[in-house]
What does this fold into?
Amino acid sequence: MERKHLLWLAAGMTSLSLAARAQQSQRPNVIIIYADDLGYGDLSCYGATRVSTPHIDQLAAEGCRFTNAHAVAATSTPSRYSLLTGEYSWRREGTDIARGDAGMIIRPEQYTMADLFRNAGYATGAFGKWHLGLGDKTGKQDWNAPLPTGLADIGFDYSYIMAATADRVPCVFIENGQVANYDPTAPITVSYEHPIEGEPTGKEHPELCYNQQSAFGHNQAIVNGIGRIGYMKGGGRALWKDEHLADSIVDHALRFIRQHRSEPFFMYLATNDIHVPRFPSDRFRGKSPMGVRGDVILQLDWTVGEVMRELKRLKLDNNTLIVFSSDNGPVVNDGYADRAEELLGDHSPAGPLRGNKYSAFEGGTRVPVIVRWPGKVTAGQESGALLSQIDLFATFAHLLGARMPHGAAPDSQNSADAWTGKDSQGRAWVVEQALNHTLSLRTPQWKYIEPCANPYPFMQLEKVETGYGDRPQLYKVDDDIRESTDVAEQHPSVVFDLQKLMREIQGKRPKK
It folds into this structure.
């Protein structure tokens, strides 16, 4: 009798285990592909004609292409912070463009998107550009040993990342909190304060920058024949080769997919390609009439193609939700003499929009967004719903049916209905942040740009129209997408109402 009871118990436990595995397998894998400095007009599915992006176009053909979606900020670090935390970066000090040796900007005590997925039973991985700091304090990292705090402390089971961007030292990949392929014969020293004795700089020895010359800045440490921001010594075989960056990121990302094919996984795949220095693989060099900036867009498209190819090979593509976007708008000349401006031709990286990266105008934050989710998102859709990347957090929480700690993702809203086509309007408003902290309030009809204390209208070196001014600006964006005519004086009541709403948003503290 006792043996029969044990057999019944074992059979029941097996059934429960099988049921749990079946339930788990129904949950979609989730991949965020987050491009860097990719503009609204840089993809052929968004109207580009001088560059072709067939794999990204296919992603759009199999999902929904959004035409009124926004990054939170016109620069990298604040956009990434807001996406992963669900909190506006302007609410928190220290979220501006980070140094390569910045301490962790997302702190271990914060509840992140990766925490959300890990607590829901997902394997979690981060790949590529990070630019949100590592270690506890800025400038205090020991790059020759495991870092005491890293991505494992904010929800990621596995990470293979660049500490910041390709134009900033240290020029090594960090794998699970320590330098990948560490070379003990070439210990690493990093400084953002002063040159390192005995190490040549791009400023003093431009002839050593044989792979790419600086146009402005980017003339401190020299790695792989390219000047960087910040000073660095050592690295040896751990130093990356810029022409292999995309291959290395993709290789590790695909390995993660293969390792977790039998369980739900969440992947944050942040590509580097479009960001300077633009130094593509030989497979793509010279393939675009727009020079290296066009070549790296082709390289980005290849990355998307490789991810999709692996998902289809493993028969995971129909159960994987993919969100593709960019961290901010485009910039053409951002510090290297790569002829990107000269070879641009009639290509408009921001499409019909005014402004670029760094700007308060739409070109700074309005970015491509594609959502592909077979069976949930109708293939071939186009939506003008107003979206913000800050809402990915709450949307994923809704789709997972997840419980979150009180105060987590305080500024994030569920936009699942917009993703699936049930809501064609989207948000009532989004907030956009420019480089100098100027905030804009965008509704489906209006764009309000607040006045600022440093209203220089043009970034001379980058040739970017900033949108900064010492008076309130108002644009009727539903029929003036270019923001060509300031109508603040004609609509004082609209300005008043949007100023009031902006104050309410700014005064709303995150829920505790």
